[in-house]
Amino acid sequence: MYKILATSGNAKRAEFTTVHGTVQTPVFMNVGTVAAIKGAVATTDLQEIGTQIELSNTYHLHVRTGDKLIKELGGLHKFMNWDKPILTDSGGFQVFSLAGLRKIKEEGVTFQSHIDGHKIFMGPEESMQIQSNLGSTIAMAFDECAPAKADRNYVEKSVARTTRWLERCKKEMDRLNSLEDTVNPHQMLFGINQGAVYDDIRIEHAKRITEMDLDGYAVGGLAVGETHEEMYHVLDKVVPYLPKEKPTYLMGVGTPANILEAVDRGIDFFDCVYPSRNGRHGHVYTKFGKINLFNAKYEKDLAPIEEGCNCPACRNYSRAYIRHLLKAKEMLGMRLCVLHNLYFYNHLMTDIRGAIEAGNYKSFKDERLYLLKTYDKDKK
């Protein structure tokens, strides 16, 4: 169940109740592709840093360790010791990212495994079956994420096929949820809006999938080659055609600035690998922008990554020490940076929710963007 608690302009502050707990939105989903956050971060860490919902990937868990084994072991929640909501991506993004290793047909997609090259077939039914085996809270529909600047004719055909695939996903999800041995009989299904940067295709697709009355709706196919301005334009056009009374999810986005802008356009859910990926390379987020701890100026800096931050890294260690760990290639340095970044993103969302509740989201957004643009001088 999704309940809007407050609005500020187009920004929504809501609660999303699931069988695995209630999510306060807007929310950032911490990305654990193979049932773990890269950077030696445990699910016990996620509890400590304020994570509400974790995201894992259908394709990656299918090829390793295998969804059938995970089902046998009690499902993904039990397997990774995480009792809060989990969203599983459908494998559809791999249709885009593994373009050189796949072939798309009406039935589905044939992949070559990126691990050992063996052939894998995945269509809507297979994606739903894998996600049902995992027992995630929210399953994503199987779709094709076409490149942002793809030819219009190709995009039209791709979106039409994605719509047909969504119908098959819904039918198969209903069947799987009715089985006696299903891990999570309350598994939810989110549909995905596609259409590259073509306004009319996006809008028509949004209308079509809204008619299917799904549990939630995502905007996909962004952050795959278009500019930030083009992404915001697509959101301005398409979000009004998605049901306001359902959660909206912007897939694979993004930077703190992207999140601030997208919330202002009605987005509830976000995920991105940036905080963990950047953290593993010593790039850490602050209200005043991103800093690179490898820079020599932090060699003797005894301040925390960010003053006032209550994450495990900032409570206990200095920039100088973390820089030393990174330079020495000690895993602890990487781990501390990832923990800080995830904490930063999780608590950015807390601040966003507070600003919407207070009815002053626009001024909050402008202030945060000003700080980022004014002080972000250490990107290299």
Automatic annotation (TrEMBL):
<keyword id="KW-0819">tRNA processing</keyword>
<dbReference type="GO" id="GO:0008479">
    <property type="term" value="F:tRNA-guanosine(34) queuine transglycosylase activity"/>
</dbReference>
<feature type="binding site">
    <location>
        <position position="194"/>
    </location>
    <ligand>
        <name>substrate</name>
    </ligand>
</feature>
<feature type="active site" description="Nucleophile">
    <location>
        <position position="271"/>
    </location>
</feature>
<protein>
    <recommendedName>
        <fullName>Queuine tRNA-ribosyltransferase</fullName>
        <ecNumber>2.4.2.29</ecNumber>
    </recommendedName>
</protein>
<comment type="similarity">
    <text>Belongs to the queuine tRNA-ribosyltransferase family.</text>
</comment>
<feature type="binding site">
    <location>
        <begin position="89"/>
        <end position="93"/>
    </location>
    <ligand>
        <name>substrate</name>
    </ligand>
</feature>
<feature type="binding site">
    <location>
        <position position="221"/>
    </location>
    <ligand>
        <name>substrate</name>
    </ligand>
</feature>
<feature type="binding site">
    <location>
        <position position="309"/>
    </location>
    <ligand>
        <name>Zn(2+)</name>
    </ligand>
</feature>
<feature type="binding site">
    <location>
        <position position="314"/>
    </location>
    <ligand>
        <name>Zn(2+)</name>
    </ligand>
</feature>
<dbReference type="InterPro" id="IPR004803">
    <property type="entry name" value="TGT"/>
</dbReference>
<keyword id="KW-0808">Transferase</keyword>
<dbReference type="Pfam" id="PF01702">
    <property type="entry name" value="TGT"/>
</dbReference>
<dbReference type="GO" id="GO:0005829">
    <property type="term" value="C:cytosol"/>
</dbReference>
<keyword id="KW-0479">Metal-binding</keyword>
<dbReference type="InterPro" id="IPR036511">
    <property type="entry name" value="TGT-like_sf"/>
</dbReference>
<keyword id="KW-0671">Queuosine biosynthesis</keyword>
<dbReference type="GO" id="GO:0046872">
    <property type="term" value="F:metal ion binding"/>
</dbReference>
<keyword id="KW-0862">Zinc</keyword>
<feature type="binding site">
    <location>
        <position position="340"/>
    </location>
    <ligand>
        <name>Zn(2+)</name>
    </ligand>
</feature>
<feature type="binding site">
    <location>
        <position position="311"/>
    </location>
    <ligand>
        <name>Zn(2+)</name>
    </ligand>
</feature>
<comment type="subunit">
    <text>Homodimer. Within each dimer, one monomer is responsible for RNA recognition and catalysis, while the other monomer binds to the replacement base PreQ1.</text>
</comment>
<dbReference type="GO" id="GO:0008616">
    <property type="term" value="P:tRNA queuosine(34) biosynthetic process"/>
</dbReference>
<dbReference type="InterPro" id="IPR002616">
    <property type="entry name" value="tRNA_ribo_trans-like"/>
</dbReference>
<feature type="domain" description="tRNA-guanine(15) transglycosylase-like">
    <location>
        <begin position="11"/>
        <end position="369"/>
    </location>
</feature>
<feature type="active site" description="Proton acceptor">
    <location>
        <position position="89"/>
    </location>
</feature>
<feature type="binding site">
    <location>
        <position position="143"/>
    </location>
    <ligand>
        <name>substrate</name>
    </ligand>
</feature>
<keyword id="KW-0328">Glycosyltransferase</keyword>
<comment type="pathway">
    <text>tRNA modification; tRNA-queuosine biosynthesis.</text>
</comment>
<comment type="function">
    <text>Catalyzes the base-exchange of a guanine (G) residue with the queuine precursor 7-aminomethyl-7-deazaguanine (PreQ1) at position 34 (anticodon wobble position) in tRNAs with GU(N) anticodons (tRNA-Asp, -Asn, -His and -Tyr). Catalysis occurs through a double-displacement mechanism. The nucleophile active site attacks the C1' of nucleotide 34 to detach the guanine base from the RNA, forming a covalent enzyme-RNA intermediate. The proton acceptor active site deprotonates the incoming PreQ1, allowing a nucleophilic attack on the C1' of the ribose to form the product.</text>
</comment>
<feature type="region of interest" description="RNA binding">
    <location>
        <begin position="252"/>
        <end position="258"/>
    </location>
</feature>
<dbReference type="InterPro" id="IPR050076">
    <property type="entry name" value="ArchSynthase1/Queuine_TRR"/>
</dbReference>
